[in-house]
Write a structure and sequence with these properties.
Layout lengths: L1 H12 L19 H6 L6 H4 L11 E4 L3 E5 L5 E4 L1 H10 L7 H4 L1 E2 L7 E2 L5 E9 L1 H4 L9 H19 L6 E8 L4 E10 L1 E7 L2 H4 L3 H4 L11 E7 L13 E2 L18 E6 L10 H30 L3 H31 L1 H16 L7 H24 L5 H14 L5 H9 L3 H18 L7 H10 L2 H11 L5 H5 L6 H5 L2 H42 L14 E6 L14 E3 H7 L11 H8 L7 E6 L11 E3 L5 E8 L17 E5 H10 L14
Antiparallel strand pairs: 1-2, 1-6, 2-3, 3-10, 4-9, 5-9, 6-8, 7-8, 9-10, 10-11, 12-13, 12-16, 14-15, 15-18, 16-17, 17-18
Helix pairs in contact: 10-11, 10-12, 10-13, 10-16, 13-21, 14-21, 16-18, 17-18
Length: 687
């Protein structure tokens, strides 16, 4: 335990700033506050994070399970991104009331729409519990025992701290590759109602064409409100519930931003891998990303073909298409950035220096061991990823598996079937079936193809013939028949060709792939834990912030443009003039609502700010995060990164890495002039 204690002490003293890179734990922000102050921040560490008094952390929330939001009124009003609220807006939409196309604006609290299943979570406190989690383990017991002890102690602590009746949830998270453990305690609210959303032609302006790009002109916001029981406690939806009364909410700055201004992002970044071995970066940039890009390109082409032909299909597949497209484009920027920066070779050069330092010490041979583990892992993990991007992406196959699982648990399937078929279009799924199975047949060697897959291909002669037979005979092509299924019909599902195909892959994965992959991943976790600890000993002056894991973090920097290529410079603020320059009624992504054209034609609005760039280090999960100025006032809502900087999950480049934020002044402009919902302003605090 002596080496572990030394490591934790190193964490406490190793805080030296490099550029604007970093996602910092807010309870340790006192160690960053001098650097933040030198860059313009006028807040104290206690203003940003405190458990003794209301602080900015109390106005930040985890929205759903993968976005961030922020409170902006004493009545539980919150902002997040349009794409974070998209699926809930879609659920309320129909051909008759197309809130995706037309937007939605409640004109009073009584018109706000409930969203079953949507939760928001506020961090109550966070603390280092490494000693508690590793209690009972000694190095002589080995890595498997360490993981087992950590899991058991984590589960025990979470159960002790959680109070479900009061909405208290506890989560123990590993930091620094499980060299350190933190307890996060949340209060979860379950009655969250839709208040407002702009038309998708504003909230998603630019669509897939502009996604990850700059200049950006997207009004990416939606508005919700949290409700509680009359006594202020978390509660399920009830008409008797009242608006949430927060400890803290953000004041909104109308002053705006300019190049060089200090900003910081307070949110829940999802996942980064800044300290991984070169072989993982090579696999991501040269193998995984290109393969997945090619597969998703085919899926997107099929979806868009049918979406362009039918408004109903466009509504059904808008959220699905956006989900597929988001990662697809991000991976293109990520792999391109890794190549441009020479990240793999840079890491290999670092590893050679590390190996020289480690020679004849406790870390000797560690880089060779990591390389050998990755070599064994790569084909297995590629097979797993290929299954997820092909077989699992065929909706009828994955839904058949889900229905069988529900029937096994004696659960009714009528409601899940209604939800599935509401947003299902068989011609799309049929084409994707053929494209994905053909890709699997062509690109995965026979050693990584299940026997059933090869047998059926031989039987039918082509994936097209197999598809036609499967969709013609499967019960899952008949929505009414699926809705009528009961647990006594489970044998009927097990005989269905859609279920049999999916099960064949799952059985093969469970028998031939996952056991070995899990064993290798266990070795890799142990090696990466050692490598993380070793890197910090190798570079004691380097500032090692923990990788993102969807827990609350602070990232800070400044408003700044960038130069993506020779002789090109992007200014950091976009305006309404740029929207009008892109406006094109013949292109879905650029067909703005007529009301915006009319407002612009009146004159005086061409300099209306829309979005801005900054150097804050962000990633997925930061969507919807508040972007704050030097005084902690809300100036924007983070929603994206520039395409050239999406490799920041692996390596941060201050010349290219920029986060894109909606200027809060454009949000207010849209609320007032498009939604005519300026009644909401009465509960906001403006600076």
């Amino acid at each position: 335990m002596k080496r572990l204690t030394t490591f934790i002490l190193a964490l406490a003293v190793s805080f030296q700033a490099f550029a604007d890179e970093g996602m910092w734990l807010p309870n340790l922000i006192a160690r960053r506050i001098d650097d933040m102050g030198a860059k313009g921040c006028r807040l104290s560490a206690e203003d940003i994070y405190s458990i003794n008094k209301a602080s900015l952390k109390d106005a930040v929330l985890l929205f759903g399970s993968g976005c961030t939001g922020e409170l902006v009124s004493p009545n539980g009003l919150l902002f997040t991104n349009h794409h974070c609220g998209y699926s809930f807006i879609q659920r309320h939409s129909s051909v008759e009331h197309d809130y995706l196309k037309d937007g939605f604006w409640a004109m009073s609290q009584s018109e706000e729409l409930p969203n079953p299943g949507l939760t928001v979570s506020f961090l109550e406190r966070m603390e280092d519990v490494t000693d508690v989690i590793l209690y009972g383990w000694e190095p002589s017991m080995g890595d498997a025992a360490r993981d087992s002890v950590a899991r058991a102690n984590s589960a025990r602590l979470e159960k002790e701290v959680a109070v479900p009746s009061k909405g208290i949830r506890a989560s123990v998270e590993a930091l620094y590759y499980a060299n350190q453990y933190y307890l996060f305690v949340f209060r979860v609210y379950r009655d969250v109602r839709l208040v407002g959303a702009p038309p998708s032609s504003i909230g998603k302006f630019g669509g897939d064409t502009d996604n990850w790009m700059w200049p950006r002109h997207t009004g990416d916001f939606s508005i919700f409100r949290i409700y509680t029981a009359p006594d202020g406690s978390p509660a399920d939806y009830s008409p008797d519930n009242i608006p949430y009364r927060p400890r803290k909410y953000f004041s909104i700055s109308r002053a705006g931003v300019k190049e060089g201004d200090f900003t910081f992002v307070y949110g829940c970044p999802g996942s980064t891998r800044e300290y991984v071995f070169s072989d993982e970066v090579r696999y991501i940039g040269e193998v995984s990303d290109p393969q997945k890009i090619a597969l998703r390109t085919k899926r997107l082409e099929i979806q868009k073909k049918y979406m362009s032909q039918s408004q109903a299909v466009r509504i059904q597949y808008s959220a699905k298409n956006a989900s597929v497209s988001n990662a697809w484009k991000k991976w293109q920027g990520e792999s391109g950035g890794v190549r441009r920066l020479g990240t793999v070779e840079a890491k290999r050069a670092y590893e050679r220096r590390f190996a020289q330092w480690a020679a004849r010490g406790p870390y000797e041979g560690l880089t060779e061991r990591l390389a050998a583990i990755y070599a064994r892992r790569e084909p297995l993990y590629l097979a797993y990823e290929y299954f997820n991007e092909t077989i699992r992406s065929v909706e009828i196959l994955s839904f058949a598996w889900s229905v069988h699982s529900a029937l096994e648990l004696k659960r009714p399937v009528e409601s899940m079937a209604k939800g599935f078929y509401k947003d299902y279009y068989r011609p799309i799924d049929e084409e994707i079936f053929a494209a994905m199975l053909d890709a699997y047949r062509s690109n995965m060697s026979g050693d990584y193809q299940p026997a059933y897959f090869k047998e059926q291909l031989a039987l039918y002669g082509s994936v097209e013939a197999w598809r036609d037979a499967l969709f013609a005979s499967s019960i899952f092509s008949n929505p009414d028949a699926v809705k009528a299924l009961t647990p006594s019909d489970i044998a009927k599902v097990e005989a269905d060709p859609a279920y049999k195909l999916y099960k064949a892959f799952r059985d093969w994965l469970d028998a031939d792939i996952m056991p070995e992959l899990h064993a290798i991943d266990g070795e890799l976790r142990a090696a990466n834990r050692q490598y993380m600890r070793a890197q910090m000993e190798f570079e004691p002056e380097r500032d090692f912030y923990p990788d993102a894991n969807l827990t609350l973090r602070v990232a800070y920097g400044k408003v700044a443009g960038y130069s993506p290529s020779d002789a090109v410079y992007y200014a950091p603020v976009s305006t309404l003039k740029g929207i009008m320059e892109k406006d094109n009624p013949d292109i879905f992504d650029y067909n703005i609502p007529q009301v915006l054209r009319d407002i612009y034609a009146e004159g005086g609005h061409e300099k209306q700010p829309v979005c801005f760039l900054a150097t804050n280090h962000t990633t997925g999960g930061n969507s919807g995060s508040p972007v704050l100025n030097a005084d902690g006032h809300l100036v924007g809502i983070n929603f994206d990164r520039v395409w050239e900087g999406t490799m920041s999950d692996l390596v941060f480049d201050p010349d290219y890495c920029r986060n894109i934020s909606l200027d809060v002044r454009y949000l207010l402009f849209v609320i007032e002039n498009v939604g005519h919902a300026d009644w909401l302003f009465k509960e906001m605090d403006f600076k």
